[in-house]
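Lab notebook, bench 4. The sequencing result for the construct came back, and we need a structural model before the next group meeting so we can plan mutations. Quick request posted to the team channel:

Model the 3D structure of this chain.
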Amino acid sequence: MQSKILLTEQSIVYGEIPSILKDKLDLDRIKTDIIKNYALNNFQSKDIFNYHKDYIEISDDQHMTWILDYIRDHWRVEYGRTPVLTQRAGLIQNKGHTINTHHHIDEFDLWNSPDISCIYTLEAGQEPSEIVFEYTKGREKHARYRIPMLENRFIIFNSDLAHYLTPNKNEDAIVNLSFQFQLL
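Done. Here's the predicted structure in token form:
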């Protein structure tokens, strides 16, 4: 008899918030908050070498809580573990702007690093940007997987997955929410 032991598991889960909930959400209110904080330079870091330089502080909002509740409940039912929010932010990509390769693990504080991350697209434009994941697959050291970032799509992935957002080809900005969770 042989035994198999899974050493690591990396995954990407994506879907959309159902229309019954989406129709109740005031996404314009959330976008306005992100744009306001962008204009006020309320970024999570001023350090140009820190990926948080692209992440915008955002306010608590009932409509965002409903998005988080959906993601949490969906994950708990599907995968048996409860995501607990550790970080939230907004992302704005103006024309030609990209979000450089990064992951959400703090190498100096692994215990408090998130387990999973989520990006939720509020506004995608005519030509959506893509999120590109970089990973190692056995001998294949530079594997890539890309997913278009469509309006109302959430993409949940392991926080240790290196990823970047391709440049915005639209005249108007692309607006996203970013969440990070620890799993209980």
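The mean pLDDT is 91.
Will bring this to the meeting.
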